[in-house]
Amino acid sequence: MNSVRKVVLAYSGGLDTSVILRWLQETYGCEVVTFTADIGQGEEVEPARAKAEALGVKEIYIEDLREEFVRDYVFPMFRANTVYEGEYLLGTSIARPLIAKRLVEIAEATGADAIAHGATGKGNDQVRFELGAYALKPDIRIIAPWREWDLTSREKLLAYAEAHGIPVEQKRGKRSPYSMDANLLHISYEGGPLEDPWTEPEPDMWRWTVAPEEAPDQPVYVELTFERGDVVAVDGKPLSPAQVLETLNDLGGRNGVGRLDIVENRYVGMKSRGCYETPGGTLLLKAHRAMESITLDREVAHLKDEFMSRYAALIYNGYWWSPERRMLQEMIDASQATVSGVVRLKLYKGGVQVVGRKSDKYSLFDAEVATFEDDAGKYDQQDADGFIKLNALRLRIAARVRPEDRLRSDEG
């Protein structure tokens, strides 16, 4: 235990990480450096400084990473139209590689020989933090208290805090029964009543979005301007990456967009029921696919879709810093060179509909070819005869060789 001299702890200032801070000091007899990241969780992070100081911490890092988070992690992920298991927009997953990177960088800067996190031994986050850290600093030592101690309940944590003089903020009112995680992309809810997958979430659980039935009675329109696959303006107003997501979160939330209730397959092997609010991400995904629909070649678009599920699993399982994810990212980013233009969305009571898309420079949509009216000779319909016969050739040969596969005369 005493071989650890200094540890960098991912620190929120809450009960769990405050207990971890003291536990590290006592168990390992080491100096603790705290790192608190603002990635848009919607809570003040500065109070963590006073709590860390009260526990004897000398080196305290509190950083605003919102722009870096969206620019270097969220936007690259959305260029791939990333969705895990058909529904989840990976709001928690995509934040972990950034935190892992900063933990390692701070360890390097402070001369620490270990990092620590507060993820439990049942979840995905322990994997994401640690795979990221090992990929960036192979010899780093990682301490995961939840896999070492016996403080396995909130009651035990509170008792430890009281016994060791750790200040715990007691919030007034009813304590939320849910385990929640938030950042600029989403907020998640797990545990409590949600552990029964048949139980509908309580209406007052949701924090970012209004219920669709309570959303405005008139539709709302918004235009998103893309450059090389990323949104750079909303309704014509240029915005930074973080400002884009903040704006879309507000707009989607007010119109009941972005709620999700799923049972997902965790990397550690169990199924887990979770609820998510991702209003801005839902709008972003819808608009990005619409922008690609008129600017990407058909085979490029289809190839991207084939790789997407693998790419999504890499992020979900914690392999952001892996060579295969980096390779896929280069391919994805190359495909976005022409994904520029404007998409118009219509929001109404939880629904999102694409009602317009245009790209003055890169659109592959040729109205004169696609028209049902006179195409002025741009498309010779007689060419379709040979096209169809060539594609049917292997089917016709197979039918001759295997007559049993043909429709019988008595089958309708």
Write structural notes for this entry.
This protein is an alpha/beta fold and 412 residues long. Strands 3-2-1-4-5 form a five-stranded parallel sheet, sandwiched between helices. Helix 3 packs across helix 7, helix 4 packs across helix 5 and helix 7 crosses helix 8. The longest helix is centred in the C-terminal third of the chain and has 20 residues. The mean pLDDT is 93.
Please count the helical segments.
12
CATH topology of the largest domain: Argininosuccinate synthetase, chain A, domain 2
What portion of residues belong to β-strands? 15-25%
Question: Which term fits the overall shape?
Answer: elongated
Major pleated sheet: 5 strands, parallel
Arrangement of strands in the largest sheet: 3-2-1-4-5
Mean pLDDT: 93
Q: Tell me the domain tally.
A: 3
The low-pLDDT segments are none
Say how many strands there are. 14
Based on secondary structure, the structural category is alpha/beta
Q: Approximately how much helix is present in the residues?
A: 25-40%
CATH superfamily of the largest domain: Argininosuccinate synthetase, chain A, domain 2
CATH class identity of the largest domain: Alpha Beta
Order of helices and strands: EHEHEHHEHEHEEEEEHEEHHHEEHH
At CATH level 2, the architecture of the largest domain is Alpha-Beta Complex
| CA-based gyration radius | 26 Å
Alpha-carbon distance between the termini?
78 Å
